[in-house]
Amino acid sequence: MADLQRTVDELAARLDRPLLLEDRVQRVVAYSEQNGAMDDIRRDSILRRHTTPEVRQWLRAAGIHRAAAPLRTPGAPHLGLLPRVCVPVRHADGLLGFLWFIDAEPAMSDAQVAEAEAAAPALALTLFHESLASGLASHRELEAVTGLLLGERDAARQLIEAGAFPQAQPVTVQVARPLAPEPDEALRLALEQGLLALRQRLSGHHPLHLVRYDHAVLLTAGAPVSPDELHAAMPVPVVVGVGRSRPELAAAAGSYQEARHAAEVTARVRGLGRSAEWARLGVYRMLTQLPDQPLHPGLEGLLGDAQYLPLLETLETYLDLAGSVVATSRVLRLHRTSLYYRLQRVEELARTDLKDGGERLALHLSLKLARLSGRYLPRDSHGSS
């Protein structure tokens, strides 16, 4: 409710006129300071938290339940009703409520109506979230999930006692990270919309969610949800990281940290696809935990010059395949003579010796670190001939 009230107050301040928000059966949900034109109907609605049957019937006849866009409703002097602007609040074609403005002293401009309409999706998401909260108020669920991901054990107890998550079920956390370069409010709303729609379909998994400024979090009970379902629900392109399951909700923070790291690696490393499980990240599990490390000095010059990309791809494939010339030739479809030539060129340019195990390890780790930092962008997951 705190999010709704804040949004209502901010919108009223921007438009410099009071407003009132009702749910779909016209019960008052929130309202701003009433410092403008006021009629008896507005006053009674605030005091009683709902409108009278006569007024609801009048407004229904004006078409508010069918409206897909803002609608100006006429006044009704016999009911004590001034003209109004009604902005329907909808989510996925479902009516969730109405945003009301008294359209008098002065009337609303078209620009003001358009701004009110633009605010409706955010209100719809909050109302929809509250309808999914399973006995736990939306803002309390948000606080509890936030605390849970920070490792607060009492947060798990709150969610379980409220019936939002089963006590004896394991939990898995997935993180969806958008590919957009800069997060903004429109992106946050898109992530929220996708997760709310997914929660409705996944009710059997007792889903919970949280949207942060640059990523979205989904928690589910029992077997993890397929990352493909998460991709399909998102209205914007994302990569998905999957943490390992934990035996109880109180341990969800560990799965969350793994999912965040997996999503970060997936966003940075080409060849991993659109999703990755923490348990299958291999060496990247370790590298994401390390502070910035210097690379092998012989690779510095090669990484900065595009002409050396085929050599680096060949070297990485060779090291990935444990130094097997036969396997590397087959994967790269490269004649062994050409492969030996490329590896010799790497040794000359990088001033290294590929027969030295320590050098091979340093080169291999440096290439993986360069992938994570974006300095090395191979053309596919195995290199290219």
UniProtKB/TrEMBL annotation:
Domain CdaR GGDEF-like: 155-265
PucR C-terminal helix-turn-helix domain sequence ranges: 311-369
Superkingdom assignment: Bacteria
Family classification: Belongs to the CdaR family.
Protein name: Helix-turn-helix domain-containing protein
Organism of derivation: Nonomuraea cypriaca
